[in-house]
Amino acid sequence: MKILAIETSCDDTGIAIIEISDKKQETNFKVLSNIVSSQTIHQQYGGVFPMMAKREHQANLVPVLKEALQKAKLLKIQKGTSSAPATKIKNQNDNAKLKILEKILKKESDLYKNLTKFLEKYKKPFDHDQGKPVIDAIAVTHGPGLEPCLWVGVNFAKALSYFWKIPVIPVNHIEAHILVNWLKPINENSKPKIKNPKQIQNPKSKIQNLFPAVSLVVSGGHTQLILMKKIGKYKIIGETRDDAAGECFDKAAKILGLGYPGGPIISEIAFKANNPPQPIKLPRPMINSKDYDFSFSGLKTAILYAAKDNVLTEKYIEEMCTEIQQAILDVLIKKTIKAAKDFKVKTIILGGGVSANQELRKQFASKLQIVNSQINLLIPPKELSTDNALMIAIAGYFHKNKKASWKNLEANANLRVGK
């Protein structure tokens, strides 16, 4: 089985192609391609502008698709086109198809132009011996995220699904951040594999029983604690009441004049500072509340006032970055471990862009060893913590029985995972 996945929920344009072969004890999983095009244009503005991101997705999707198919060795030029310009439409049937494509992409005119040129020049991925498409399904992020960005990816998936006659699998972006943890670390000496969810829940299996689990999904747009009884069964037990943790990093960096995105910049400065003495003390909002919710707006305000009252010397910025990072991590770790204890979970799962933070990974592992070394900790590889299409492909695999017609696919910016 091959799945082509599309990710456009924010400012990263991603397309991945995976090949899966199911076995009794495990699922062998081969990454044929995983291409991500990040939009650096937003750095000068200190944040993502949805309509600007939409335009960038329109420009990037076809080149990224071409690169993904090429790397997967699935890109073949139509007869007679070679290096020549794209062929003209040859018959009325093709004209009718293009009219439907134009209707699907009526709000993405630039994407329509790019895609029609691509489809005229390159063959549909098709296995003539088997009499079916080489790609079995197209998985696409349909929410949550920035609505203009989501619709570009959704409409692109609909267009490909219609033209290539391949079913689509709608994927929840938050769930994908969780399920990417089922990918074993990629290295040159071992094939990537996804653990079989049925085997995970079977205590007789050699694969460790991971459920129930609590997942912390933390990014620029989300900070959620999700109770997970099994794959596909989720309940949100806590979330931010205002700013997400990643958003707090970004706004703090902007206050200090450090650029965008703020999380990696603050983390790097804190790392280089090598834990200097901290005369600065910032609040840890809601760290001792009895629930599992978060709040970072008060921390952001405290950073703003502290910065106004001090000269932003190099030393001060180092101290402030160290304290900002620690304040956010303290809340994330304490709340998650509290939830793990209260719900007696067997596993803590991290996901989202902030989970790439090295100090978060280190401190989570250290705290768990002290509190309960029996709890498993799953953290994705750093390159799969941020938005990518490979995680969408993995989630698509777990929902392979939910293939749908392109006609029923819609974007939902406020899509929730579980209740």
UniProtKB/TrEMBL annotation:
GO cellular component, one term: cytoplasm
Cofactor, free-text remark: Binds 1 Fe(2+) ion per subunit.
Positions contributing to substrate binding: V217, V218, S219, G220, G221, D250, G263, N357
Ranges where the Gcp-like domain occurs: 30-74, 135-187, 209-393
A Pfam family it matches: TsaD
EC number: 2.3.1.234
Catalytic class of the enzyme: transferase
Source species, domain of life: Bacteria
Broad class of the protein's primary localization: cytoplasm
PANTHER family: TRNA N6-ADENOSINE THREONYLCARBAMOYLTRANSFERASE, TRNA N6-ADENOSINE THREONYLCARBAMOYLTRANSFERASE, MITOCHONDRIAL
Protein name: tRNA N6-adenosine threonylcarbamoyltransferase
